[in-house]
Amino acid sequence: MGGDRVGVRVVNKAISHHLNSNLIMESGFIIFALEVCQELRSMKGVLNDHLKTLRDFLVDLRSNHGDSIKGMIFVETRATAFALAKYITEELEMMKFKAAPFTGSKSSDSSEG
């Protein structure tokens, strides 16, 4: 019986350690995303060509198809997803764009999620 309790404690400790390390990594990504947003804000006058193209494309879509248009933009990292959602929401606020990051875990062995 005593061995069972020790085994359960070891498993609980391993699970707790795994969850804590995932939370630490996720927190690091979120902090990085916020730093990227701050950097983008400080570069308000400087616009990346890709962001300009995306912004112009989204404005054209809204102009041509109205408010009911919806879509998804796929990116490689969570930090980019958070930063881009924040950028779109803030940059296109007057057009009532609402962007939100939608992230998942690994989708395949070759992907890093």
Describe this protein's structure.
Helix content is 64%, strand content 0%. The protein has 113 residues and is an all-alpha fold. It has one domain. α1 (2-42) crosses α3. It is elongated. The relative contact order is 0.10. The mean pLDDT is 78.
SSE blueprint and pairings:
Blueprint: H1 2-42, H2 49-65, H3 78-91
Can you give me a brief rundown of this structure?
By secondary structure, this protein is an all-alpha fold. Helix content is 64%, strand content 0%.
Strand content: under 5%
Backbone shape: elongated
Rg value? 20 Å
Low-confidence runs: none
Helix content percent band: 55-70%
Tell me about the biggest sheet?
none
**Straight-line distance between termini:** 42 Å
Q: Treating each run of at least 4 consecutive H or I residues as one helix, how many helices?
A: 3
Salient structural properties:
3 helices, 113 residues, mainly alpha
